[in-house]
């Protein structure tokens, strides 16, 4: 898909060869707070997931793609979730696995690629993102890409240190309002 290729990254479907990357990322406890993960995943469970990842977004209501650099190294994951074709909306989430790959425009390019795909190919009217209020890097990123703050969910996410607020951001495709 040429539409999912940028200057620094491209997005591709998950493949069986991604098992080790997925295992490492899903079991990284430092991101469990944002992913909602409560327990480790086994390679067997992740392997079963990879066997079914080909299923259609209209069936499973989710699309997960690898973010790859131009050297074909998987550096993160990006998702459309809670896909709602009737109301033409979906949530969007992203994780860049290694901190050395952050703040270089890679995430911004990946979000732009997936947003363009969601608006043009999937004909979505809007995307939304839920971001913890203390995640200033993600807040800055989504605001820079035209997502607007539309709500605050107070004490929404329970963490090891207490509850955290979550901010809802939204981007409406004004080119397609029918």
From TrEMBL:
The keyword Hydrolase does not apply. Residues 9-173 form the N-acetyltransferase domain. Coiled coil: none annotated. It holds the Pfam family Acetyltransf_3. It comes from the Bacteria. One of its GO terms (molecular function) is acyltransferase activity, transferring groups other than amino-acyl groups. Keywords: Transferase. InterPro entries: Acyl_CoA_acyltransferase, GNAT_dom. This is Acetyltransferase. It comes from Flagellimonas eckloniae.
